[in-house]
Amino acid sequence: MNKQVWIAIGLMVLIVTACQKTVEYPIEPKITYESFTYLFNADSTFSGQGILSFSYTDGDGDLGLDDSDTIAPFGLNDAHYYNMIIDYMKSVNGEFVKVPLLSPHVAIDSADTQLYDTVSFNARFHRLRDSEEPKAISGTMEYTLTVQNPLSPNDTIKFEIHILDRALHESNVIQTEPIYTNPTIQ
Question: Domain 23-185 has what CATH class?
Answer without folding.
Answer: mainly beta
